Amino acid sequence: MIYIDVVNVFNGYKTCYYQTFCCGKPSAKQLDVYERCHDWLWAAIEMIKPGITTADIARAWPSAQEIGYGDESEAFALQIGHGVGITHWAKPVISRLFSLDHPEEIQENMVIALETYAGSGNDGVRIEEMLAVTQDGYRLLTKFPSERLISCPLVGAVYP
């Protein structure tokens, strides 16, 4: 498994999105971890609309204890969202660490990136999508397919 954070600049505006790939044929465990990560991400994305808060989004993600950490500070950057624009990281920052106690309202025209992580042993997955908040929801800005794990065949490998 390999994940890549794609950060570019286009006309002065930043991008930020993670994608995960599997080198070789993915195992059942890798597929399960990927699906879990994807489900957490889309649970948050599908909530996006003006008026919800960063706390609403953070509640869509598992707690630190649910993913095997002692507290939210240990798991801070694993399930996170942040504004994107002329800076790579901007407000609002969305995290269970502080969004639950200090929520900020999501507003139309914000551009945000939401990213989730799921891991089990050596198999880790990170997926991130960028979106613009519209009057009645969101518009997905990233176009790279993330609905399923993409495997890259190893040269000379033969799979059943």
Note down, in words, how this protein is organized.
The chain has one domain (2-152): Creatinase/methionine aminopeptidase superfamily (Creatine Amidinohydrolase, Alpha-Beta Complex), CATH 3.90.230. With 160 residues, the chain is of the alpha+beta class. It is 15% helix and 34% strand. The chain has helices at residues 28-45, 54-59, and strands spanning 2-6, 9-10, 13-14, 17-23, 80-83, 90-94, 111-120, 123-134, 137-140, 150-152. The longest helix is centred in the N-terminal third of the chain and has 18 residues, at 28-45. The strands form 3 sheets. It has a 5-stranded antiparallel β-sheet. Strand 2 (9-10) and strand 3 form a beta hairpin. The protein is globular.
Report, as a whole number of angstroms, the end-to-end distance.
Answer: 20 Å
Full CATH superfamily name: Creatinase/methionine aminopeptidase superfamily
Query: Per DSSP, what share of the residues sits in E-state strands of 2 or more residues?
Result: 25-35%
What topology, given as strand order, has the largest sheet? Answer: 6-5-7-8-9
CATH architecture identity: Alpha-Beta Complex
Number of helices: 2
Provide the low-confidence segments as ranges.
Answer: none
Number of domains: 1
Total strands: 10
The biggest beta sheet reads: 5 strands, antiparallel
List SSEs in N-to-C order.
EEEEHHEEEEEE
Rounded mean pLDDT is 91
In terms of structural class, how would the helical and strand content be classed? alpha+beta
Oligomeric category: single chain
Radius of gyration: 16 Å
